[in-house]
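Input (structure):
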C-alpha cells in the first residue's frame, strides 16, 4: 500500500486516541470500549473509500512482542508502590501465579469440551486460548476503586495480581505456542514444568541483573535527560537480552527490571524527577494501550460474531467459572499462608468480577501465529471475552463496589 495511505490511517487512529477519553468521560463509559468502537468505524470507513489499513496478521507478532508489551509491562512495574507490593506479596503471588495457572487450565478444559472439535480445535490450541484469556487488565476497575472510596489495598491487590499475572500468562502462552507449533504436539508434564521454570526463572535473573546494572549506571549520570533515556534502554534492553540473546522470558525480564529500577527512583529521586518520569511513562503506557485497543477495533469483523458466537459464549462461561474457582482457592490459600495479612472476604466479589480481560489478552491474540490450528477461532474468542469485559463487567463493577463501601 502507498505510504501516504498508511500515514493517513495512523493519523486517524491518533486522533481517535486523543478525543475518545473526553467522550468516554461524558458518556461515563470505559475509554477502552470507545477505542475499540472507534478503531472498527475508522477502518470500515477507510476501506469503504478504497483505502487499505495496512494491517496484516503476519506483522502482529513482532510488533506486539517487541514494541507494545515491553512498554506496557515496564510502565506497570515501574510505578507500582514497591513497599506495599512486597507487604501484600503472598496474596499477590497466590492470585497471579497459582490462580493464573489454575484459571488457564480450567478455562482451556471448559473451552475444549465446550467446542468439542478435536481436529479443528485440539488440546494444544485450547491451552493457548486458556493462557491468553488468563491475563487480566484491572485499569478500569482500579480507577473505579479510587473514585468510589473503596479500600486502597483492594486496588493494590488487583494491580499487583495483574502485573505478575500478565508476565506469567505471556510465559505460559509462549510455552503453549511452542507446544502447538511442534510436530508431535505431545504434552510431557515434567518437560513442560522444566521449560516453564527455565523461562520464568531465567527472565527473573536477567531482569534483576539489568535493573541493578541500570541503577549503578544511573549514579554515574549527571545529565537530566539521561534518566528517561536510561529507563527506555532498560525496558527494551532487558527484553531483548532475555528474549533474543538468552532465550528466556523477555516479559519477566522487563517486569523485574522495572521493579528494581522503579524502587530505586522512588527512594532517590526528587519529586520533580519522579513527576517527569511519570509523565513520560504515563504517555508511553497510555499510547501503547490505546493503540492496542484501536488495533482490536481495526481487526474486528462482523463475520467473527456471526460465525464464532457460540465459541465466544462458551469461552465467556468458562472464563467466569475458572475465575471464580481460582480466585476463591487463591485467597483461601493466601489467608492460610504464615505471615500473610488476611484478605477480607468482602474483597472477593470485586476481585472475581474485576478480573477484566483487556490489553494484554488482545495483544497476545493479535500476536497469534497463523499456522496454529484454529488460530482465528482463538482470536475471535479473545475478542468476544474482551468485549464482554469492556461492555458488561466494567460498567457493572461499580454496583459491587458500592456494596463493599457500604460495609466499611
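Output (sequence):
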Amino acid at each position: 500500500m502507498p505510504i501516504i495511505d498508511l500515514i493517513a490511517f495512523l493519523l486517524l487512529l491518533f486522533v481517535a486516541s486523543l478525543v475518545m477519553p473526553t467522550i468516554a468521560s461524558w458518556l461515563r463509559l470505559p475509554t477502552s470500549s470507545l477505542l475499540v468502537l472507534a478503531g472498527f468505524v475508522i477502518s470500515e470507513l477507510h476501506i469503504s473509500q478504497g483505502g487499505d489499513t495496512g494491517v496484516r496478521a503476519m506483522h502482529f507478532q513482532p510488533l506486539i512482542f517487541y514494541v507494545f508489551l515491553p512498554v506496557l509491562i515496564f510502565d506497570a512495574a515501574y510505578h507500582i508502590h514497591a513497599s506495599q507490593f512486597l507487604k501484600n506479596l503472598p496474596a499477590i503471588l497466590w492470585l497471579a501465579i497459582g490462580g493464573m495457572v489454575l484459571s488457564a487450565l480450567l478455562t482451556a478444559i471448559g473451552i475444549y469440551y465446550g467446542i468439542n472439535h478435536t481436529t479443528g480445535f485440539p488440546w494444544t490450541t485450547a491451552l493457548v486460548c486458556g493462557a491468553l484469556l488468563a491475563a487480566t487488565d484491572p485499569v478500569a476497575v482500579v480507577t473505579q476503586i479510587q473514585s468510589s472510596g473503596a479500600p486502597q489495598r483492594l486496588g493494590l491487590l488487583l494491580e499487583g495480581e495483574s502485573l505478575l499475572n500478565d508476565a506469567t500468562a505471556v510465559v505460559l502462552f509462549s510455552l503453549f505456542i511452542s507446544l502447538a507449533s511442534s510436530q508431535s504436539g505431545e504434552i510431557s508434564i515434567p518437560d513442560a514444568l522444566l521449560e516453564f521454570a527455565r523461562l520464568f526463572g531465567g527472565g527473573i535473573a536477567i531482569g534483576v541483573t539489568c535493573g541493578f546494572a541500570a541503577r549503578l549506571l544511573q549514579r554515574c549520570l549527571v545529565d537530566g535527560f539521561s534518566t528517561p533515556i536510561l529507563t527506555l534502554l532498560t525496558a527494551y534492553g532487558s527484553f531483548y537480552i532475555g528474549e533474543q540473546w538468552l532465550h528466556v522470558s523477555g516479559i519477566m525480564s522487563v517486569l523485574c527490571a522495572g521493579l528494581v529500577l522503579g524502587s530505586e527512583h522512588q527512594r532517590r529521586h526528587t519529586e520533580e524527577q519522579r513527576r517527569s518520569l511519570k509523565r513520560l511513562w504515563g504517555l508511553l503506557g497510555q499510547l501503547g494501550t490505546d493503540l492496542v485497543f484501536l488495533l482490536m477495533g481495526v481487526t474486528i469483523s462482523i463475520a467473527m460474531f456471526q460465525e464464532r458466537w457460540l465459541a465466544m459464549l462458551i469461552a465467556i462461561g468458562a472464563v467466569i467459572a475458572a475465575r471464580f474457582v481460582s480466585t476463591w482457592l487463591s485467597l483461601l490459600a493466601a489467608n492460610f499462608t504464615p505471615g500473610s495479612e488476611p484478605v477480607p472476604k468482602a474483597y472477593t466479589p470485586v476481585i472475581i468480577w474485576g478480573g477484566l480481560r483487556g490489553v494484554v489478552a488482545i495483544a497476545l491474540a493479535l500476536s497469534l501465529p497463523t499456522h496454529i490450528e484454529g488460530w482465528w477461532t482463538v482470536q475471535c474468542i479473545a475478542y468476544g471475552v474482551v468485549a464482554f469485559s469492556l461492555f458488561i463487567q466494567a460498567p457493572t463493577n461499580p454496583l459491587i463496589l458500592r456494596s463493599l463501601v457500604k460495609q466499611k
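Notes: The chain is about 80% helix and 0% strand. The chain has a mean pLDDT of 83.
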